[in-house]
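cache lookup: miss for this entity combination. No prior model stored, computing from scratch. Input as submitted by user K.M.:
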Amino acid sequence: MPASAEHPFEQPWQAQLFALTVALNEAGHFGWPDWAERFSERRAEALRADASDYFDHWLDVFEGYLGELGLAEEAELAEMTAAWRRAADATPHGVVLSLENDPLHSISADHSGSVQT
Amino acid sequence: MPHDHHDDTEEMVARVRALETVLVEKGLVDPAAVDAIIETYSEKVGPKNGAAVVARAWVDAEFADWLARDATAAIHSLGFTGRQGEHMQAVFNTAGRHNVVVCTLCSCYPWATLGLPPVWYKAPPYRSRVVIEPRAVLAEFGTVVPEDIEIRVWDSTAELRYLVIPERPVGTEGLAEAELAALVTRDSMIGVVRELSV
């Protein structure tokens, strides 16, 4: 069991996820004990000894919790995830990643606007 | 089938970006607040807030007394406020007792005073073993607690979190409060370390 100091986040997405959760809590959308209870239930199951699955579980539980709170539906999140994945695939190295790089982005934007002929 | 870690990471990144896009578009979170939280926890808080609490308790008996009675209020008085509304309890090491903190459920931790927990604090071996065999676990951290010293294990919850107040090292009578705070380590405030080096 190492006692050395280390960074609490292994990857930037983990910090982002943590901060999103805290921000949503601070904006008053849920109580922390309520969230902690759900997260603990998941963490009580089989776990990797090095805790490398900690934020994977956090993300799973948080996505489900948003649905339970009625703040974001599973399908909505899945759709947006797919958009970001397409954007990442279509973005060359050295270019800032943006949702606008999703090849389907302009199409969906057009759908919400006027009908194409 | 081989598991591609790189693809896994990209998937997690896309999911978190999606979360943020959806929550921001709905006006549920402010992106500036998210950035501020990351900055606070990555760079600012660390364990130095907790160290300031400990140092104050060492130099100010009245504060130490307040900390023992109502740690939440005493810690707030120094400007460190729990973001999740949790209560704090300070547990004092003495010549005859050593305190160590765990969260067996997940990883409840006093963020406002210690920042974010280290990886081992969140890992199953520490969480399950420290309750059963604290002496053996502490020894793995290089902390050998003599048999005649009692070890108390405190199990944190989402509502109540513990801060270990280590004993002031001998030979520090001449040090100023800020110098004392610099001696206090994160691990000593979790309780996996007992002796502070001067």
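stored under new cache key. The radius of gyration of chain B is 19 Å.
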